[in-house]
Structure formats: C-alpha cells, structure tokens
C-alpha cells in the first residue's frame, strides 16, 4: 500500500520557495497500479521522490509498505529502499560494467554482510526474475549488448529483487517505441498482480492509461482523478 | 568490492594505464631511494662505522657551519674529553683526503689516522688501531692499487706496509685507508699542515649534558650526536638535501596523480553512484568499494614497481652506489600506497555528495 496524505513539498527558489506538491493525497492498494500523469513540471517526479523516501515533504504523511517514510532519517531511508521498495527508473540506469544478473545482485552486495549461501540464493533469484521478464538467456550480457527494451526489462527485474511491497515507476516507456512500451506496461501490470505490490507509475503516455487501476492527474502540484479515463473497465472494477 | 572488481575488468585499459603510472613512479622513487642511500653510504659509512655515540669537532667561526673539513683539534682537547665522567672511549681521528700510490697505480682515498684514549679501549672498537708504519685499506682502494697484504703503498711521501684489506668504508665518496694517528700527523706535516692534534673525536659513552657543555666551552669544540655530525660532511649535506627533496616531490606527485585519476573516475561514475544510492546502497559500502579499488590498484602497481626496482638495482649495483634493502624498496612502496590512498580519499567527495534524487527523471 502506498498512501500519501495531505503532502506538501516546496523547493527554494531564490529568496522564495516554489511549491512542487500542494496538499496532495493518494492511496494505491496492494496489487494495483496507479498512474500519475500530467504535464512536465507539474510535480509528478516530486511525488515519486517523496514516496521513495528520496526527499522529505514539508508536511503531510507518507506511508509506504507500512513504513512512515517521512519520518525516516537518511540511513533508515536507504535501508527502506533497499529492503522494501522497488524503483524502476525512466532510463534503464544500468551500470555499464555489470552483466544483467550482476545488475540485480549488486544491491545485495552493497547493502550489508554477504554470505556465500545468500550470494548463491541471490543469483538464483536474479536468474529467475530475468526469466520472468523474458531475458532468461541474456543474463550474462552487459548493457551495451542489450536493446533498449531489454535494458528496461532488466531495470524492472532489478526493482523486484528485494520482493518489494511497493513499486515506484518513473516513465518506463519514454525511451521506447509504442510496441515495446506496451510490452513493458504489460509486464508491470502482470508483475504487480503476481507480486502483490502497490505500484505508483508516472507516465506521459496516455495510450496505456485505460489499463491502469486508477489514474491521477497532476497539475501545478495538485492531484485530481482523470475524468476521461475514470470510466474505463479497470477503474470501474476498482470502484 | 563487488562493483570495483567489475569496473576494473570492464575498464581494463584505464586501470592498466594508471597502474603503469603507479609502477613507474614507484620505480623512480625506489631507484632514487636506493641511489640516495648508496650515495649517503659513500659519504658517511666510515663515520657511522666508528660505533661512537657522538662526535666532537672544532667550534666553527661565526656564521660558519660545523665541518669536518675545517675542524682542527689540539691534543689537549682529546685528553679533556677522555677525562669527562661518563665517557668510556675516545677515538682521536685525523681525516684528510689525498692520493695513495703503489708502483704505477694511484687512487684517491680518505686517510683516517686513529688512536684510542680512555678507560675501555679494548671493547666496542670497530677495528684495532693500526700499528705505526702500516695501513689498512678498504677493498675498493686495494683493488684499484692491485695490492695485497704485505705490499707497500705511498701516501704523501710516506711508505706504509699494507697490514690488511677490509670491507669498504667510505668518507666523502672516497674509500678510507686507516693509519695510526702518528703516521697521519707525519703526512700532515709533509703537506705543511699542523703536526699535532686531530680532526675530530669519536666519543663513546653518555656524559651529562652539563659536563658536555662545560667541555665544549673549555676546549672550543662542539659535540654532535652521530646523526647530526654527518651534516658536517659537506658533500653529504649538499647531496642528501636535494635527493630527499626529489624523493619527497615524487611522493607528492604520486599522491596527486592517483588523486586526479580517481577524482576523474568517480566524477564519471557519479551517475552510477546516485543510482546505487537511490536503490539503497549505503554510502559506507560505496566508499569501501572505491577505496578497495584504489588499494588493489596501488598494491599491484607498487608491487610491480618494487620488483622492477629490485631487478634494476641488482643489475646496477656494481656500476652505481646503489643500496638495495627494505628501507629503499618496501618503505617507499608503503609510503606510496598510503599517499595514493590519501589521494583517492579526496576523490570520495563525489561519492559522498552524489544525490540519489538525480537518478529519477531523465537526468542520465
């Protein structure tokens, strides 16, 4: 479950402050996908950053996977992201020196003490997740040996490595053509359902909105429900 | 080290390049250290080999530095120092530089005339005092003159029998030959120098500081501990300063080069670091990863550099005054590694300051 309640976030702008998120509230139940859309600069990424614990809001409550994220200090926030949250970046953001399997294992290695047994288990899970996103035979390839769509699939698989209870997804189709973008959305919907995670997905691409469980529109830092897609089958089910 | 090892494998060319630079700087530092120690040895080994605790020299004129070359002590000074409480042994040293000949061969040498005074002349002496009319030669001088035990050599018109060839001892870049103080004085007389006294006193024992100060005042002398006394050898003083300065500058350069490389490297990786932080990697583990990478690079580069230094030093040892020892290889290597890590630590700012927030959006 991802819940934001009356969240406000401002940034310094010269002598004054600009409001990026203005008393925003949303709730994403487990196993569902909420799309967050809106024009550039409307505050979508700020909401995502707040939900991921990357930035503290000025006010409001942020509860993600049962954790009051707004109260976490830097170290606790880092641990929270590593253990309970999955992040899918807009660009694949893969490390050039790591193979696909290693991209998924990196966090396990950089998060704390690692035993030989846990290393083997982690590797097995990485291969299983790569298979789940259709890359069973690509695990030993580095990013430059993969296509854009394949890199984005590795990006998604990496976000699922820690069995997250919540996923924040930042415009996953922006660098892909319609067909590949559609496949990526299919994958996110499927993985959300199978994993039971609550997924908050930022997107510009309105072509896929009717497949979301809820669609929220961001405008000048304020959130509202998208009236155009509110009657779609998925959203009707939600209601 | 998870990411660090893989970065090194992935960017092999860059790491081989900087590793080669580390190796070459280590080779340069090691070679210079060995040469510095070799040159120092050729300046001072005869003095340090005396086994004395301090050296007494004539007080310099105002504005001048204490110097073996300018030091002249009278015989009374030696007796006064020998009578000082706490002094176990005094070696009177006459030091001069001249040429020694044997048949048609000739070579430059330092002549050390030596005589022992004091309460315990039988122990702690590096060698027994040569009998009058005899000389003991350092091996280099004996080889240059092609003489052996029992042959005769001539120093300043005085014929002396060779009474032994000993391991090399050096003073101011010339091999030392040992004579009795009486013979040394005789040579000085033939060269128009004062016929009595000596150049310096090698003191063994630990007299009170107040007694030392009093003796200095009454005899017009200056007492220096062994290390300080070496600076009274002009050639040593002028060489050691510039050579050590070069070594120190090379250490500084190595720290800068390593620091610059890792600064550029981590700046290039700043985006990757932000991603890893956003995903939950701790700053501590990322820091260890980066420092571990620097340590591996430094240990490999320095290790290879030390190996090359040892090989080249062994090859050059016969042609150059080169000392190959842990002090001239391992110690500079350890300093290189420590300074390299300091340089790499400066580069950590990019890791510490990387903002995970920048991983979101289309920033990369």
Task: Outline the structure in words.
The complex is a heterodimer of chains A (239) and B (364). In chain A, helix 3 runs parallel beside helix 5 (148-159), helix 4 packs across helix 5 and helix 5 runs parallel beside helix 6. Chain A has seven helices and ten strands. Chain A has helices spanning 44-51, 74-84, 100-111, 116-132, 148-159, 178-195, 233-238; strands at residues 2-13, 16-28, 33-37, 59-64, 67-68, 85-88, 166-170, 198-202, 214-219, 222-225. The longest helix of chain A is centred in the last third of the chain and has 18 residues, at 178-195. Chain B has twelve helices and ten strands. Chain B is an alpha+beta fold and 364 residues long. Chain B has a six-stranded mixed barrel, surrounded by four helices. Residues 118-126 of chain B have low confidence and may be disordered. In chain B, helix 1 packs across helix 10 (283-316), helix 8 (234-268) packs parallel to helix 11 (330-346) and helix 10 (283-316) packs antiparallel against helix 11. The A-B interface holds A 45, 48-49, 52, 54-55, 75, 78-83, 85, 87, 89-91, 93, 95-98, 102, 105-107, 109-112, 142, 158, 162, 170-171, 174 and B 2-3, 6-7, 9-11, 271-272, 275-283, 285-286, 289, 356-357, 359-362, 364.
| Dominant shape of chain B | elongated
3D shape of chain A: globular
SSE pattern of chain B, N- to C-terminal: HHEHEEEHEEEEHEHEHHHHHH
Structural class of chain B: alpha+beta
Give the helix tally of chain B. Answer: 12
**Can you give the helix content of chain B as a percent range?**
40-55%
Strand segment tally of chain A: 10
Cα Rg of chain A: 18 Å
Strand content of chain A: 25-35%
The main sheet of chain A orders its strands as: 6-7-8-3-9-10
Low-confidence stretches of chain B: 118-126
The strands making up the biggest β-sheet of chain B line up spatially as 2-3-8-4-6-5
Strand content of chain B: 15-25%
Oligomer: heterodimer
Q: What kind of sheet is the major sheet of chain B?
A: 6 strands, mixed, barrel
Order of helices and strands of chain A: EEEHEEHEHHHEHEEEH
Low-confidence stretches of chain A: 233-239
Distance between the termini of chain B: 24 Å
Average pLDDT over all residues of chain A: 86
The total beta strand count of chain B reads 10
The DSSP helix count of chain A reads 7
């Amino acid at each position: 479950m991802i819940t934001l309640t009356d969240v406000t976030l401002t940034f310094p702008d010269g002598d004054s402050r600009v409001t990026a998120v203005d008393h925003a509230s949303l709730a994403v139940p487990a196993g569902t996908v909420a799309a967050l859309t809106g024009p550039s600069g409307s505050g979508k990424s700020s909401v995502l950053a707040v939900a991921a614990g990357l930035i503290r809001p000025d006010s409001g409550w942020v509860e993600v996977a049962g954790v009051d994220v707004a109260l976490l200090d830097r170290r606790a926030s880092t641990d929270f992201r590593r253990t309970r949250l999955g992040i899918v970046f807009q660009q694949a953001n893969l490390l050039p020196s790591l193979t696909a399997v290693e991209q998924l294992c990196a966090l396990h290695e950089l998060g704390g003490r690692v035993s030989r047994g846990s290393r083997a288990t982690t590797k097995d899970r990485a291969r299983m997740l790569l298979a789940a996103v259709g890359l069973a035979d690509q695990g030993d390839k580095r990013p430059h040996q993969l296509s854009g769509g394949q890199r984005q699939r590795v990006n998604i698989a990496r976000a699922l490595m820690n069995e997250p209870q919540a996923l924040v997804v930042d415009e996953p189709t922006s660098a892909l053509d319609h067909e590949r973008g559609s496949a990526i959305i299919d994958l996110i919907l499927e993985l959300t359902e199978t994993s039971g995670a609550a997924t908050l997905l930022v997107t510009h691409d309105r072509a896929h909105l009717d497949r979301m469980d809820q669609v929220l529109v961001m405008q000048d830092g304020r959130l509202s429900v998208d009236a155009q897609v509110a009657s779609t089958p998925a959203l009707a089910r939600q209601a | 080290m998870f990411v660090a090892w893989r970065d090194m494998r992935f960017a092999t060319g860059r790491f081989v390049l900087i590793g080669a630079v580390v190796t070459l700087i280590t080779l340069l530092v090691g070679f210079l250290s060995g040469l510095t120690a070799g040159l120092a040895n050729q300046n001072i080994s005869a003095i340090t080999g005396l086994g004395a605790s301090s050296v007494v020299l004539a007080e310099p004129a105002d504005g001048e530095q204490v110097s073996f070359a300018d030091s002249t002590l009278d015989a009374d000074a030696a007796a006064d120092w020998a009578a000082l409480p706490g002094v176990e042994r005094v070696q009177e040293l006459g030091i001069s530089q001249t040429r020694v000949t044997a048949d048609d061969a000739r070579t430059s040498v330092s002549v050390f005339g030596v005589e022992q005074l004091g309460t315990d002349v039988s122990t702690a002496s590096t060698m027994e005092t040569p009998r009058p009319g005899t000389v003991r030669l350092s091996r280099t001088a004996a080889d240059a003159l092609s003489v052996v035990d029992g042959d005769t050599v001539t120093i300043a018109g005085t014929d002396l029998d060779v009474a032994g060839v000993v391991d090399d001892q050096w003073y101011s870049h010339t091999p030392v030959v040992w004579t009795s103080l009486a013979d040394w004085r005789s040579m000085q007389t033939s060269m128009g120098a004062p016929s009595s006294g000596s150049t310096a006193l090698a003191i063994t024992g630990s007299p009170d500081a107040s007694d030392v100060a009093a003796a200095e005042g009454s005899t017009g002398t200056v007492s220096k501990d062994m290390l300080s006394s070496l600076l009274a050898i002009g050639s040593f003083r002028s060489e050691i300063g510039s050579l050590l300065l070069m070594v120190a500058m090379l250490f500084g350069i190595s720290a800068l080069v390593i620091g610059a490389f890792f600064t550029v490297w981590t700046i290039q990786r700043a985006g990757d670091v932000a991603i890893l932080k956003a995903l939950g990697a701790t700053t501590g583990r990322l820091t260890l990863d980066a420092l571990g990478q620097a340590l591996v690079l430094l240990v490999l580069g320095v290790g290879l550099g030390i190996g090359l230094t040892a090989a080249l030093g062994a090859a050059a040892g016969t042609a150059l005054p080169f000392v190959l020892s842990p002090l001239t290889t391992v110690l500079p290597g350890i300093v290189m590694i420590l300074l390299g890590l300091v340089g790499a630590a400066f580069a950590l700012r990019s890791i510490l300051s990387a903002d995970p927030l920048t991983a979101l959006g289309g920033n990369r």
